[in-house]
Amino acid sequence: MNQHPHARITTLGELLKTSYRPRTVKDEMRDNLVALLKSGKRRFPGIHGFEDTVLPDLERAILSRHNIILLGLRGQAKTRIARLLLDLLDEWVPAVDGTELMDDPLQPISREARDLLAAHGNETPIRWVHRSERYTEKLATPDVSVADLIGDVDPIKAANRKLSYSDERVIHFGLVPRAHRGLFVINELPDLQPRIQVALFNILQEGDIQIRGFKLRLPLDVQFVFTANPEDYTNRGSIVTPLKDRIESQILTHYPKSLETSRLISDQEANPAAAQLERVALHPIALDLIEQIALEARESELVDAKSGVSARMTISARENLISAAERRALLSGETNTMVRVADFWGVIPAITGKVELVYEGEQEGPYLVALTLLGKAIRKQFIQYFPNPENLKKIRKKEGKQADPYAGVAAWFGEGNTVDVFHDMDDKAYRASIDAVPGLDDILDRYFHQASNGSDRYFLKEFLLHGLAEYSLVSKHLVESGTRFSDLLSSMLSGKTVDEEDY
User: Fold this and answer.
1) Fewer CB within 10 Å, N or C, the chain?
2) Which residues have a Cβ under 8 Å from the Cβ of 287 and sit 6 or more positions away?
3) At residue 497, does pLDDT exceed 60?
4) Is the dihedral of CA 37, 38, 42, 48 positive or negative?
């Protein structure tokens, strides 16, 4: 932590000689945001995809000095946004030293601080508080009590100080009073029991608290930020209407609206080991496939849309993909490797653990749903780089098979040839298996206009095979520890299906 600029100011008298004047935390955040907006500097670094939607609403709420609720499905950066609001506080503020609450020396609210000021006057010691100490976060759970949030009588304090229970100094303050002059964030607000939510009414409306029978009024200065998931309203609880009415700004979050934004988030958040990045090369299409899986999941009829598909899925999936390639390379004794489409086998656990299925999805099973989502992602990405096989049907009728760039590959499989790509096969065997299919290089040279050589080229050729399988030009089914590509017709006659499990 940096040394604060007023380190030599240690008493109230010295503070009074400076230009310091008390401000509410909402005014403080507003003033600092105004300065940022005027300067044109970036606000909320690390938040992507909300530049034209969520963040303008958030800034308007701060300028209005509102308490805020961020409402959205899981994995939409709600907590991250709340934590970034801390940067809008002044870096250092003075407080009366030796008190439980962060009392402003010029506007004390606690009995303890007022007694100190009365006893010591201008010699009252002050301390400087960094903004990192002015942030309080609480995850709402059903077992949270009023005492946790507001406070309660502390019999130990009463005994140690020999005070009567009628003396307000026996109160042990909860999290909210201790957040005085700071940010207080409650995550998953609907999980709070209704009677606990009611306890927040007066704080938001009047800025004061009531503890048991004490005639106590503390004009708390707190910026409240709440987060909530709409799914919780029916599954676990709800926000009581009077509380919701007292939260001035409700801001709706959303998932990334483009693959590029989604990938930018994964680039930022994925945290593979440094040794993995040295050993494993990532093809851009592989990274796009991961993001496409999430996009497909959010549109899938098998996945519960109300539950959402967290951005954490793509982050975990990327890390798993890298680890799958690394494990394969280590088993093969290879120093370096390129991610393969076959390595997406290792992504399945990241998918199954991050999606909630509807009844039809449960009938299919999470494993097959994950394979279906991967297949749809391959299908969608395939036509970004190669001709859409479905659009070639009319051309084939008019001009014959010679007009179909994929006809040679399909014909080779039609002759009874098969190709096996095993998950853990070494680089030499993998390349030999892919090279066995004629015509893949010709398709790449004709349609893929980006530079490709070596490992890149083999990834693309495998991607081609998977894409042709998704468009039913060749057959693909799982065999033990791998995938077999074969002729579609012979597979249908043998009873095999594209996603049949052979284990």
Assistant:
1) C
2) 263, 266, 318
3) no
4) positive
Q: Are residues 200 and 329 in the same domain?
A: no
11/422 Cα distance (integer angstroms) = 73
Q: Whole-angstrom Cα distance, residue 307 to residue 418?
A: 41
Contacts of 35 (CB under 8 A, 6+ apart): none
| Helices and strands of the chain, counted as H and E runs | 25, 14
Q: Is residue 314 domain-shared with residue 438, that is, in the same domain? A: no
User: Under the phi-then-psi rule, with left for phi > 0, alpha for psi from -120 to 50, and beta for the rest, what region is 41?
Assistant: beta
Q: Is the CA virtual torsion 397, 398, 401, 404 positive or negative?
A: negative
Where in the sequence is the domain holding 495, given as residue range(s)? Answer: 390-503
Distance CA 366, CA 343 (A): 18
Q: What's the CATH code of the domain at 44?
A: 3.40.50.300
CA–CA gap between residue 6 and residue 468 (Å, rounded): 68
> Which pair of structure tokens corresponds to residue 357?
């299925």
Considering the domain architecture, whether residues 216 and 360 belong to the same structural domain is answered as no
Report residue 396's pLDDT band, with 50, 70 and 90 as the boundaries: low
371 and 488 co-located in one domain: no
Shared domain for 213 and 270, answered yes or no, is no
pLDDT of residue 500: 41
CB 422 within 8 A of CB 484: no
Does residue 421 sit in helix, strand or coil? strand
Question: Does the structure show a pLDDT above 80 at 472?
Answer: yes
Do 243 and 113 share a domain, yes or no?
yes
